[in-house]
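Quarterly update, task 2.4: S-adenosylmethionine-bound model.
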Amino acid sequence: MDASKRLTDSFGRAMGDLRISVTDRCNFHCLYCLPETEAAADFYMKQASMGASQDESVPILRQWKPKSQILNYEEIVRIVRILAPYGLSKIRLTGGEPMLRRNLDQLIAGLSAIEGVRDLAMTSNGFRFLEKAQSLKQAGLKRMTFSLDSLDSKGFKKMTGVAALDSVLDSIAIAKDLGFDPIRINAVVIRGMNDHEISDLAAFAQKHKVSMRFIEFMPLDAGRSWQKSLVVTGEEIMDHLHSRFDLVPVAAINDSETATRWRFRETPEAEIGIIAPVSKPFCRFCNRLRLTADGHIRTCLFSLEEYDLKPLLRGGADDMQILKFIRDAVLLKEERHHIGESSFVQPVRTMSGIGG
Ligand code: SAM
Ligand code: SF4
């Protein structure tokens, strides 16, 4: 593609990856995202009493956006149709929990029919995936990422607020059977909560020949309880894994990859990836753009500004006006995030409201 057509920001980064949140709603209460359970409150209170200072600001409460503000499937398909020819060809559906949106296969069919969409993936907590897996695959969904932070049913409930470990494991198994490839598993590692399960999760990846992504906890939780001391760094995770597994580094396919990857020497089909935005930011090569469920363009997970597309979408704007609006937003993409610095301000939206 002609590089001059790409949506490029003021630091020379050409956008290639569009994350679309299809709903801000969720049926889980993950400790690092929407912690509204007693177990979550207890955990964070214990950490605070051990010296981690709490953010004094008012916690963000769960408040779903009204349905009228949520983009319909025609609107989402139109945005992707406008952007795909300009290089935004990798699409990931996320949320909130995307499986809560009805007739998702219709959206997937619409997106997979767009010329120029070369990758179509979804991230889900896996709870309601099983019943719809086949129709999603048939509609054109290529890749699945599931969140799985614990392999212990009690630990899983503590992390997510829901006793759903078995359903998630069944979903992963059916996704494999149906030929989703590769299958990724995301685990957010929190010190004192699930860090003792790092090896078990890696062994799970090896056994099932899937790709395990360990993610550093980021300050995007609704409780505003994030503390640096709770972050288990990528380096700590790898030190731990290298002592137990024979891992071989995998070369990055391109600069914008967020994960540093290893494969198991004896099981090359299985992989470990470390996503370390806190200890090793990858902002310099970030090519991601986000569309929230209520139609706002976000140029960074940590953006304090966002750009509402709905007035244009619903006010009769033509495709070129919409493209120009998004191109202008991209020019304002932040150079980097400021996690851990005194100037850092947590965005009002949580990870579930942005679309991780
Ligand atoms: N509900 C789906 C799920 O959980 O897979 C999709 C949305 S969720 C927001 C997308 C990913 O963001 C999940 O894999 C989750 O683990 C990750 N995530 C959520 N909050 C996070 C945080 N504070 N730090 C790091 N990752 C987070
Ligand atoms: Fe958990 Fe995903 Fe729901 Fe957040 S959006 S609470 S990460 S399932």
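Highlight for this quarter: The chain has eleven helices and twelve strands.
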